[in-house]
Known about the structure:
Blueprint: H1 6-34, H2 39-59, H3 69-87, H4 89-94, H5 100-111, H6 127-142, H7 144-149, H8 160-166, H9 179-204, H10 208-219, H11 238-252, H12 255-262, H13 266-270, H14 273-296, H15 312-328, H16 343-352, H17 368-386, E1 395-396, E2 399-400, H18 403-429, H19 434-446, H20 466-480, H21 484-487, H22 492-495
Antiparallel strand pairs: 1-2
Amino acid sequence: MFKFNLKIILYVIGILLLFNGGLMLLSALTSLLMKDGVSFEIALSAFIVIAIGSLMMIIFRGHKPNIQKREGYLIVTMGWLLMAITGMIPFLVTGSISSVYDAFFETMSGYTATGSSILKDIESLPAGILFWRSMMHWIGGMGIIVLAIAILPLLGIGGMQLFSAEAPGPSGDKLHPRITDTAKRLWFIYVAYTIAETLLLYLAGMSLFDAVNHSMSTMASGGFSTKNDSLAHWNHLPWVHYIIIIFMFLAGSNFVLSYFAFTGKIQRVFRDNEFLTFVKFIFVFSVIVFSVLVTQIDLNTDYFYHPQVYGKVESSLRHSIFQVLAIVTTTGFVTADYTSWNSFLTVFFFGLMFLGGSAGSTSGGIKVVRHLLMFKSGFLEFKKALHPNAIIQPRFNDKVVSQEIIGNILAFFILYMLSFIIGSLVFGLMGLDFVSAIGVAASSLGNVGPALGDYGPSGNFSQLPSAGKIWSSFLMLIGRLELFTVLILLTPSFWSKN
């Protein structure tokens, strides 16, 4: 059996829990300012998590300061699990969620930025708990690991292995030779976008509390809202929707491109193959949905209230773009119930659950770059069939893509679809009907949020059986960490010496 550096694993997880508890204190402060009556309970939860993290750091401080690849995978997976387990404490201590299964589902949905919820009456929850739900998104969106690697070198620990485990996508674009500086730049952009969106939403008519929460949710591509009707609560304020549309798009794009734009390298943004494909996808899909909505669907028959402030055409256009972006970027905010429109659009949005945003974004799903390279590789096979002796290789951003990367992408896609099929079968075994089973599996694995059937935009996940909530949480986790990071732990070769 491979000998792991357990001390470093537990020490780093201790650091993560310390972060978790520290950010939990912000929720306690919010609770105090909002006078919701649970500030002591949330503060107590924070101190419990801080105590656990501090104790782990003290006990395992005498570690060897090196992280191998296997340890990186263990830290990320175990770190995520323990973040979710400790993240449950505020819900349980305050009595906001009484069931451990429900609390674990809610926290895993939070940290993985999925946005599926078991809560039926969100608006009755204390403000501190609502803030903590959004904070879980915000932590998990960019990745607590990325934050950690900006600090780990100060402790004499290298973070490259952690970064590759946390972000194993095909894009290897680096902003700076040092991984720490990369993490800092990404987080700066992430925070700047969150603040900017908060200010704009506040000016558009949201309360400051709602604006902060929805900004954190948007930038994380999460989907938790402070209202029972999600963003449909503000259907009478179109500008709220447009602001969130802009920031969903930014959160679903590669953050590296945002950095290039801010540093004056705007031409690199518009030369990026993945970004251009992402824009085309959003445009074409929005036009398709808009065409059907404006000609065939009466929004007033929807579950949600739809005041057509600027007329039917504008309303149809806005809801089309919003729903497409919410599903493609896996944000999962809701302004309408797309499952009630017609069968074509229900199937259409189900298909979009498998797309995902850009690599290097906070979105879940398969990612646009993988689809793009699979298409290119597939079309090149036709050319190879006609010209068997020709050397033809797929290109991305004017660079030749190696067969190794193509093989990795194809392996990921096959593994993703197998996970979806097995996920659906297990839900079917638990008694879910066909539509609900495939919807929940696709939504959980893609970190989308709303699903199909009983678990669509107008429903929630409270009726899932306890075992179903655990299974859904597992799918959320492997989807968030891009399959390999978690599933590799289930292989015998990971634990062997070779």
